[in-house]
Amino acid sequence: MHVQLLRITAATVDTHRHRPAKPSLLDGIINALKDWRYQPGQLSDLRRVLDASLKKRLIDTDSRKMIDGVLGITNLTASDVMVAAPKMQLIAMDASMDECFAILIEVGHSRYPVYEGSKENIVGLLHAKDILKLQRTPELSMKALVRPAMFLPESKRLIDLLREFRKTRTHMAILVDEFGRVGGLVTLEDVLEEIVGEIEDEFDKEEQQTDIFSFSDNSYRVSGRADIEVINHHFDVQLPNILDEERFDTIGGLISHAIGHVPMKGESHVLQGLQFTVLHVRGGAVTWFRVKKIGWTPSAGAPSEGHP
Question: Which of 12, 175, 232, 248 is most solvent-facing, going by the fewest CB within 10 Å?
């Protein structure tokens, strides 16, 4: 472990100028952690040493946080953060321009897997900006705009996947299982969100952080640990804190129970006019939702709920 720590520390310090090497900080850390998996107890020991290094100013706060975030994903694989195949938003090779635009407007992703024939037959990726080209130049065919897709095993370590993304300058990978079947997809954003999530978990536990963030499209990023009362006040709804005779304090617990199983990334549930889409799951618990108001008319009896 001590050898590994020296490598990590060296990756964060510019020995010629004696200051953190900011531009390549992430690359340096992931390269230093190549082929390393921590054993129980090692991670807490390593974090204590990093805290001591921070106090001695061997590393700065940004480096300390980045190291901790990357350490948190060292034992994870791509399957831990992927969007499972049934939840993937695909575009058919023979889709019309209107169909492509409808998907683009409804979903809002920047990249879409394209299939031909069977949905198992992923033939490439289509960028949102290329869909716009279809509008300006109707004579273009879908096939001319589809870009090659990167296929990787879903068992690939997350830290190796991050290195692959940065090396190839790719932002999405299609994941296949041991039998060669499409298991899901993962994006660079998914991996970086996992690192940021680890940083937030480690450094924000004792700080009073806001649990609701607004997006420009009038949707919201909501923490799974947000109190139900806070959600009710912010969205002017009356979500129950008791469901099926069970009491819940957090929105994550309530929605998970309403869904009926451990939620997967990309899964959605509607409750009282709010659509909760799972953005991030850790340890079987939802850490972040995207919440969108879709309209709700109260009626007699139990509150409206279900899957869109």
Answer: 232
